[in-house]
Amino acid sequence: MERRVALKNMGLVFGYAVATPTLLGIVQSCQGKKVLDWNPNFFSKDEGTVVHTLLDILLPKTDTPSATDVNVHVFIDTFANEVLPEEQQAFLKMCMGKFTDKVLADTQKESLADLDAEDLEPVFATYLKKQTDEVEEAHGEALQAYFEAVEENGSAVLDDEIARYQFATNLRNSAIWAYKNSEFVGEEVLAYLPVPGEYIGCGDLETLTQGRAWSL
Predict the structure, then answer these.
(1) Of 23-32, 71-80, 110-119, which one has max mean pLDDT?
(2) Residue 57 CA to chain centroid, in angstroms?
(3) How distant, in Å, are the alpha carbons of 48, 86, 131, 163, 184 from that of 147?
(4) Does residue 187 carry a pLDDT above 70?
(5) DSSP string spanning the chain?
(6) What's the pTM value of the predicted model, to 2 decimals?
(7) What is the mean pLDDT of residues 35-48?
(8) Is 37 exposed, middle or buried (0-12, 13-18, 19+ CB in 10 A)?
(9) Cα separation of 102 and 164, whole Å?
(10) Which residues pair with 214 in a beta bridge?
(11) Angle, CA 49 vertex, CA 110 and CA 64 arms, to 5°
């Protein structure tokens, strides 16, 4: 398997950040739901609570909604459950398990149900730090070997630190994608102009959008 294939497979885990009809359909299906007592389909209840907490650490409520206010957690769970192939579901579960094992070890707590934002944030921040080019290259080679072994033997072992890094960065990337494509953020936070709209070929971007990025 070529590295670009392995990295593509890796990128699909937790949300491939391309505006395909499947992904946009899942995002839209989550918009109107009032999630008062969320029961995830892919994650266990405790895993879902961890994901919910991590998402609001990443995108907290300020003058805009938090990630979970716009149901990013529902999107991620639905995508993992309905779209990911089995081998990528297993990869996601494995990476999340390595991540939460680290949190439990650092906090000396016994179960996921015992974890709160103060427990999760330090570990999450550690793995969201930008890696050097050399580390990224080493990660890419390890992931290539991992996916090749899975393809050939049906199972493989990935370094714990790489697995944790993959979980944190994939969660971040998919959360940001889903957040920006939610209805509220797309229409109320980003610069929104339904199609067809007025065409201004030479307008100043700062004037036209007040410096905001365009909504899809």
Answers:
(1) 110-119
(2) 13
(3) 26, 13, 21, 13, 37
(4) no
(5) --HHHHHHHHHHTT---S--HHHHHHHHHHHT---SS---SSS-HHHHHHHHHHHHHHS--SSS--TGGGTHHHHHHHHHHHTS-HHHHHHHHHHHHHHHHHHHHHHT-SSGGG--HHHHHHHHHHHHSPPPHHHHHHHHHHHHHHHHHHHHHS-----HHHHHHHHHHHHHHHHHHHHHTSHHIIIIISB--PSS----TT--HHHHHTTPPBP-
(6) 0.73
(7) 84
(8) exposed
(9) 8
(10) 191
(11) 135
- Provide the pLDDT for residue 171: 94
Task: Render pLDDT for 130-162 as a digit per residue (tens, 0 to 9).
Answer: 778 888 889 889 988 998 898 888 888 999 999
> In terms of residues, how long is the chain?
216
Extract the tokens encoding 71: 């149901």
CA nearest neighbour of 174 among 15, 10, 11: 15
What gap in Å lies between CA 175 and CA 179, rounded to an integer? 6
Q: Which two tokens stand for residue 60?
A: 């907290």
At 116-136, the pLDDT tens digits run 999 999 999 999 987 788 888
